[in-house]
Amino acid sequence: MEKYSALGLLKHSLSNHENWPRLWHNPTPKKKYDIIIVGGGGHGLATAYYLAKNHGITNVAVLEKGWLGGGNTARNTTIVRSNYLWDESARLYEHALKLWEGLSQDLNYNVMFSQRGVYHLCHTLQDIRDNERLVSANRLNGIDNEMIDAEQLQREIPLLDCSRNTRFPVLGASVQRRAGNARHDAVAWGYARAAAALGVDLIQQCEVVDMVIENGAITGVKTRQHGVIKADRVGCVAAGNSGVLAKMAGFELPVESHPLQALVSEPIKPVLDTVVMSNHVHGYMSQSDKGDLVIGAGIDSWVGYGQRGSYSIIEHTIQAIVEMFPAVSRVRMNRQWGGIVDTCPDACPIITATPVRNLFFNCGWGTGGFKATPGSGHVFAETLALGKAAPLAEPFSMFRFHSGALIDEHGAAAVAH
Amino acid sequence: MLHIFCPHCGEYREEEEFRCKGQAHIARPLDPEACSDEEWGHFMFFRQNTRGQHRELWVHSTGCRKHFNVIRNTVTYEIEKVYLVGTKPETEGAAS
Ligand SMILES: Cc1cc2nc3c(=O)[nH]c(=O)nc-3n(C[C@H](O)[C@H](O)[C@H](O)COP(=O)(O)OP(=O)(O)OC[C@H]3O[C@@H](n4cnc5c(N)ncnc54)[C@H](O)[C@@H]3O)c2cc1C
Ligand SMILES: [Zn+2]
Fold first, then answer.
1. Which of A197, A198, B45, B82 is positioned for an S-S bond with A1, CB 3.0–4.6 A?
2. Any idea which GO molecular function terms this record carries (chain B) (predicted)?
């Protein structure tokens, strides 16, 4: 792997940037691996990277049915934050945020992590109480978060309508200043490049269609393109398609897959240098470096695998955005798309052993797993290396839905993000 | 946008008038007290999450407010059948 540096940039400019090496190769799969990871999104690629880097396990393959990072990793609105309410989730997301803070250096790849802050607006007395509780819980866990009033909010975000003339006047907000955005594609590519450099095989266009299970233990996976590939352990990180993989292994998961949509406007001059979300009117917005406004919608209520949702959801979202930012009401929307998110009843992920020995799942991140990418990969790599849940992952077992030890982030999880 | 036939009203209406209530035909255990944690957890939270023909429960929430069942393909979103609660027509491919 060629190390990226200012000097390298200069060197390659002499040959008109025509000789940059490929980021990774496309190997033919071996017959057997120590560990197979199903799903080449950010989470799967991060898992492979940390398996190689932290645990010295490099006989690893990532099997991806499409192209690397083409799932939800490429479709999300890139909000990164760690201000979750409960101890278990706060620890997990804060672990991820700490990794984000050094990620570009670690991967030698610019993931454009920008700590521009994320605001949760409060429109009612109950919102204020909920956010004060959240801020206090976060601080007890050593996570930055603070309350500000409407006056200060208006000074910090001139575009936001904090007047009393709105239908749902803004009373204040909580703001996590270490939160922000990152470049989603760069995260997938950076992890892929670094994992490949450590010896991981990245196999694209390789769809897993069945699991090979003998005496209650997994011994390999059957793929559409390359037949059976054997492995000692298998980790599934397939987001919206997790339920389909679980069915192949003969069990159900407490997740359902729903379409989640987002849209971007035509590029405009810089107007918003942070991320604003409102649980109450149900919408959120940021502005990308290209200048387009990035707007997130909610999920459709029905199960869907089609990577597209209903128009009414977008309409509702735009109503919320115009309520918050009347100044953008005549900006035109450029593109709109959907991803399939695997939502869990308690709005927390599932990182777990399964009824099948040596088969592990990392899913249920639903509408908000991009922010967790480094942390998710880190703890899932540890889980796969140990053959049992890593300490940070322990509370997130699928069996919490039997014991009742749910981690109910619904209130604190706000809108889809 | 789905276009849904309400069997109670006898006409097609737009999706916004309806609400999807998830997987159909989930029977509440007859004797909840006798359930193990696993059985109860399974009833409460685990779902088929079918990719393909899916039986699901809908309610015409801003119309007649009555429930009915739908078989819908979760990939193409095509609605294949609408039927009344208490019935369960056979179709090829649909999971139970
Ligand atoms: C519109 C939208 C907005 C979002 N906004 C945010 C946000 O602002 N902040 C945030 O934190 N999160 C957000 N999310 C959620 C976030 O995108 C996901 O939680 C996260 O990207 C999941 O990463 P992943 O690597 O697990 O999934 P993916 O990137 O979806 O990767 C899973 C991969 O598995 C592959 N796969 C599936 N089945 C098979 C098979 N049988 N064989 C081989 N490969 C298979 C898929 O092709 C896919 O590439 C958003 C999601 C959407 C859709
Ligand atoms: Zn009706």
1. A197
2. sarcosine oxidase activity
